[in-house]
Amino acid sequence: MIFGTFAIRMTKYRIKLTEVLSRIIETDAENEDDAVEMVRQMYRNCEIVLDASDYVETEISVKR
Question: Helix or strand or coil: residue 18?
């Protein structure tokens, strides 16, 4: 970028933008591992789809 007779060198930055979505799913199961697997399968099968109403936070950081 040039201003008057001075040239300003621009530097390229890599900025990481992370959005966190979260939802509590209640399920009945024989044990914790089974409950996790049930919800994992529901998520994989698109029975659970997180959306804007599940928004928790945004983090912005510089990647080096």
Answer: strand
